Amino acid sequence: MIKTAGELITLAQKQIDCVNPVEAKALFDNSNDAVIVDVREAKNYDESSLNNSINIPRGLIEMLIEKNCQNSETLILTHCGGGGRASLAALTLQQMGYSNAHAITATFEEIKGVFD
């Protein structure tokens, strides 16, 4: 049976740690080496991004994360435009061995309002 994107996101969110923007900001503020990964496409990132974030589009996360995060215990906060791609990316990072990856499940505007 074919699963929809929504079903895959729901399954991912059951396996990862999802946080709201306020919880994510608290985690970030209490970490010395946190990485904020914007998994939206480069065009969206170039139009507006969070301070201190890096852009690794969802489709490239497996290939590019190690360049920016070599420690498997580093706090990684993924975000996107609404939480879906961030959840899928956090699950992928978890499967790769990153033990402290969290998805911020909110809209980009809500996240930006808390972080910037």
Polypeptide structure, described:
By secondary structure, this protein is of the alpha/beta class. The chain has one domain (18-115): Rhodanese-like domain (Oxidized Rhodanese, domain 1, 3-Layer(aba) Sandwich), CATH 3.40.250.10. It contains six helices and five strands. The chain has helices spanning 5-15, 21-29, 42-47, 61-68, 84-96, 108-115, and strands at residues 17-19, 35-38, 53-55, 76-79, 101-104. The mean pLDDT is 97.
Helix content: 40-55%
Q: Please state the CA-atom Rg, rounded to the nearest Å.
A: 13 Å
CATH class categorisation: Alpha Beta
Could you tell me the CATH topology label.
Oxidized Rhodanese, domain 1
**Looking at the structure, what is the overall shape?**
globular
- Biggest sheet descriptor: 5 strands, parallel
DSSP helix count?
A: 6
Number of strands: 5
Low-confidence stretches: none
The mean pLDDT is: 97
Strand order of the largest sheet: 1-5-4-2-3
What is the first-to-last residue Cα distance?
42 Å
Brief rundown of the structure:
This protein has helices at 5-15, 21-29, 42-47, 61-68, 84-96, 108-115, and strands at 17-19, 35-38, 53-55, 76-79, 101-104. The chain is an alpha/beta fold and 116 residues long. It has one domain: Oxidized Rhodanese, domain 1 (3-Layer(aba) Sandwich).
List the helices and strands and how they pair.
Layout: H1 5-15, E1 17-19, H2 21-29, E2 35-38, H3 42-47, E3 53-55, H4 61-68, E4 76-79, H5 84-96, E5 101-104, H6 108-115
Parallel strand pairs: 1-5, 2-3, 2-4, 4-5
Helix pairs in contact: 1-5
